[in-house]
Hints:
The protein is α+β, with helices and mostly antiparallel strands. It folds into four domains: 8-146, ibrinogen binding protein from staphylococcus aureus fold (Roll), CATH 2.30.310.10; 286-397, no CATH class; 415-537, no CATH class; 542-634, no CATH class. It has 17 helices and 31 strands. Helix 5 (192-201) crosses helix 6 (215-232) and helix 15 (582-596) crosses helix 17 (610-616). It is flat, with a radius of gyration of 34 Å. The mean pLDDT is 90.
Amino acid sequence: MARKSMSLLDLKAWIHHNIDTLKGSRITNIYYEHSQARILLKLKPPGGEDKLLVAEPGRRVHYTRRIKPPTSYKPHPLVATARKHMRGARLEAAEILGGDRILALRASTGYTLVVELLPRGVALLLGPDNRIIAATRYEKFKDRTVRPKEEYKPPPPPQVDPLNLTPSQLASLLEGQKDLVRGLVRAAKLPGEYAEEAIHRASLQPGAKPKDLEPRDIEALIEAVQDIWRESLQGKGYLAPARGEATPFKPTRLPQGEVVEHPTFDDALDELYSTPAQQVDTGEKERLLKSLEEARETARRYAEEAEKLRRAASLIPSMYDEIQSILDCAATGGQCPGVDRRRGIVEIPVGDMIVKARIGETVDQLVLRLFREAGELEAKARRAREAEKSIMERLEDLELKAKARRVAALARARRRQWYEKYHWTITRSGLIAVGGRDAGQNEAVVKRYLGESDIFMHADIHGAPAVVLKTGGHEPRNEDLMDAAVIAAAYSKAWKAGLGHVQVYWVHASQVSKSPPTGEYLARGGFIIRGKKNYLPPVRTRLYLGLAQDQDGAPYILAGSREAVEPRVLAYLELEPGDLKMEEAARRIKQELAKTLPRDARHIALGLPEEDIVQRLPGKIRILSARRGGASPA
């Protein structure tokens, strides 16, 4: 499977390869690429040529020749601060923190740049007192908090070091594991590529049961791991493009034609992470298709062999005396046809088959063994069919991701409508309602879009959007007013305050003025309402968020009342004020929408950019329900 991030052993090997060029290097500049969320450090090693180090939290760190520093961009706060404290300084250390995938680059000024390669990892700048000055993202994790002025504490380290296991420790860790490869990965904490290679070099099978291993097998595994690690420290890199895999050791388990040797591990990593995802997917798809064909052939072969054994076992009783005579002859050393004493078998014709009996067996024992072996072959056939099913699922998942990427490209290229820079919704009758995101937009919405026949709406709470309902010259129906009121209520401070309901009123355009009474001041975004305010029934602070598509199939988010959203979307969620932060909420919303859709349409939700979802959220949320909508996929 395509590599998502460097492993701990990869990071250790990388530091070992490059420590001489890292220590003593002068940091000549630091960059940040917003589109890729990665940091670039321009380094001048002692007596050497400039090098560019790419550090991408949650993924990778290595020297690169394929990336060029941006010529102009808006600095990220982390990088701007790091430049202030680290540019021009020398690197004094490059080390792993906490025994896990965390690289610390310590400068001579006392400041440290930390890059976490863990899932959801961040990059941080630490002061001389080890307190956080800036980070790519601030978040409270289960076991630590990343925020300014907090002392930096790495996550708890792994409890197992796979490079220093004794045979008894490894045997204990593998005990109770389902199979060998998963046992090495989950219990012994060996990265997947290392585990598969160690098993291959130890002449064992990935699916072997740990309980069936002999002491010599455990010792062979430990020796294989040590052998792989010694090779990993030599500095070379090996890339298997079809598998999306780069390693500092030669993967002997793979066919020679699938592996490309590179002079350095950096070169292999650089090529791997610069390869477009589609190319990796193509190689992965070809490998899976090959595995699928092998699994089908294996299942067919085992099933046929099992059927032959059962048929033979069923025929033998009708030939009991004849076969017993042959077995007796073989057992007493007589000259019998079909006897192979070196192998200890005698071949006996049974119908149109040849049955291999063991010398010394009785007919009854032969029948029982044949039935038992048939059962074992049928079990193997079932496992091969289960593997076939698993491979099919992985192929479907690969196709799903490829489709999601195509949808994401459509979404980002989609032409936005004029109202999409505001809070907006479409009512049941097809009317557009827009509301300002801040005081400046409130001002713009009213000045630019409040026509003579339009309706102005506002929640009866300080800190709410000015909402304009475009009527198109027609008298709006009550349900249109209620649909627009949902926007006025949900995007007001009532949401962040966790209020269950809020009052919303509406007035005609002629009642709205920017002219305050004489001697009074009207703040930006404020308005004077003259005459009677028409209050609607209390509006619940609840928002329905739906997945819609334009005519080109590009996905977008439609928010509003359930009645307005449901018929226009493929699926929708019911939201209320909660504790789920907006970035995490966006991920959850994609997942929930995808699960609600039929499998052949899930890529539409998965391709939806998370930033588009965040833009439509009023604040922290709680997901109440998920349902299918009335629209069909484009």
